[in-house]
Structure formats: C-alpha cells, structure tokens
Amino acid sequence: MQSSIPIAFLIVGVLAGVVELCGSVNSAPPTASENKTEGRKRRHVYNTEVIQIELQTTLKSVTDAEFSKIENVVGPAYEQLLDGAQHHVEVGGAVMKYTLIDADCGEAQLFARAIKDTTSFVTGATVTCNGQVSII
C-alpha cells in the first residue's frame, strides 16, 4: 500500500505538468479592453482599425494621374498617413477611394478636407472611421 502512494503522486504530478505545458485549449484572444495600455498604442491584428475615405469628383473617369496630383499637393503634409494607404477607383470611375489602416480618424478627416480644398476636381468627401461617417 505504501509503494502505491508515491506512484500515484508521481502520476498526478506528470499529468499536472503535461496540462501546464499544453495550456488552456479554450483560450481566446484578449478582448479590446484587455489590450489597452497607457502611453504607446499596442496594435494587434484583431484590433485593426480600417478607415475609408471616398472622394466624389467631377470627372467621368479617374486614373492614377489624379491620385498623383492629390499626393503631390497634400502628400508632404500627410506623408506618414499615406505610407500605408491604398487607393482605388469605385466602379463607374467617378469616386476615388483611400483605405487607411490604423490611422487617426481626425488626421484622416483633415486629409480629406485638404484634398477637397486644394483640388478642383474633388467636390466632396466621406470619411468612415470607428463606425461613424463624416461628410466633408
């Protein structure tokens, strides 16, 4: 009987070690509230913010030349914002779109306003950020 007690403790210890090494099978990624830190913003794939900017134009067909004109005029002031930006033309050819990842909503709105104010072919802009739509 005495020899079976140390063997039982040994088996329980080995099982506990295996469970500890494997971790929890049901663990989920941390929620947004668990990712909050003071100071520097931590970026995670599942917490990525996507901002859409739609520019309404007077043009019948938009090409890359119009994106180049915009970026030459307002690009120097918004260089960091444009570094990760993607641009494309909406089906039909008169709406230009920018997609920004993990950018500041206020800066995106200022960028859209600067485009509208400095180009003759952009008549309006819509910025979608944090589920809110701003019309400029």
Automatic annotation (TrEMBL):
Q: Per UniProt, which keywords does this protein have?
A: Signal
Lineage, top-rank taxon, reads: Eukaryota
Residues in the signal sequence: 1-16
Tell me any Pfam family this protein matches: SCVP
Q: What is this protein called?
A: Uncharacterized protein
Which source organism does the UniProt entry give? Caenorhabditis japonica
